[in-house]
Design brief:
The protein has a domain of about 170 residues. Strand 2 and strand 3 form a beta hairpin. It is an alpha/beta fold and about 260 residues long. The chain contains nine helices and nine strands.
Length: about 260
């Protein structure tokens, strides 16, 4: 007795990307029936929180589907309708020498990992092959003091990738990296000066290749911010000390935060 083909669809709609692949491998008929089960997904959301790694169909034709973070490059290749990629990293370890070393997993990367998050995300895929509308990368690092940062420097790995690979892409790219420090100490001055010098050097280089740049310093607030715009890329990096008006979302922001149920 054969199972109704519609039942395969119902079962598959509740499976993760990996479990769906396993389900399709059970029998050729299931594989044929579910051959196009990823066709409707047009958004990929990636995070260092496993529960926040999912693909979705913004038109509501398919249920959101979870996936394992290291399969993101495979999904990017597989999703023929993919239009939007959002990457959010919050649990970032910049305390040890490994923060500047190559990493196997994207969730172990830092803004100082060679190639940055974007190189790891694309996994050898040329951005020119993709029909995206938007790529967003948000990296928020919170440290207690600058002593918790192995090397406070201007992060340029994702900036370099963006300038080399994404400027002429057919989609818009937004990259935002921030470091928020909870404590202000008298010994911070040398590290901050080193950071400022790195930011100025990065902006000088970007100016030389034709990018529009902006540099903001607010000494009283301990806030520095740099922005680079070229082609379809907008990159920003900010360093600041903890300030509730900057770090904590307002009630209006919380109301606007989307809720995704999987």
């Amino acid at each position: 007795m054969r199972m109704p083909a519609e039942l395969f669809d119902q079962v598959d709609s509740h499976l993760s990307f990996e479990d769906s692949n396993n389900f399709k491998s059970v029998h050729p008929l299931i594989d044929i029936r579910l051959a196009g089960n990823l066709n409707h997904y047009d958004k990929l959301h990636l995070s260092d929180d496993d529960d926040e790694c999912w693909i979705s169909d913004t038109r509501g034709k398919a249920h959101p589907r979870k996936y394992q973070v290291n399969n993101a490059p495979e999904l990017i290749r597989s999703l023929t309708s993919l239009k939007e990629i959002t990457v959010i990293m919050k649990d970032v370890n910049v305390r040890s020498p490994s923060s500047v070393n190559p990493q196997v997993n994207i969730t172990d990367c830092t803004p100082y990992t060679p190639g940055g998050y974007l190189h790891k995300l694309f996994g050898g895929i040329s951005p020119a092959e993709l029909q995206l509308r938007q790529l967003s990368l948000h990296v928020d690092i919170m440290v207690e003091s600058l002593q918790d940062v192995y090397c406070l420097a201007c992060p340029t790995e994702d900036l370099r990738f963006a300038m080399n690979e994404l400027v002429d892409a057919s989609f818009s790219s937004f990259i935002q990296i921030s470091i928020c420090c909870a404590q202000i100490r008298n010994t911070d001055e040398r590290a901050r000066n080193h950071l400022l010098q790195g930011m100025q050097f990065a902006l000088k280089h970007c100016n030389e290749i034709g990018a529009k740049t902006e540099f903001v310093i607010e000494p009283c607030e301990g806030y520095v911010d740099m922005t680079v715009e070229k082609g379809n890329v907008e990159y920003s990096f900010a360093f600041f000390y903890y300030n509730p008006t900057i770090c904590d979302p307002t009630p209006e922001d919380q109301q606007m935060m989307p809720a995704t149920s999987i």
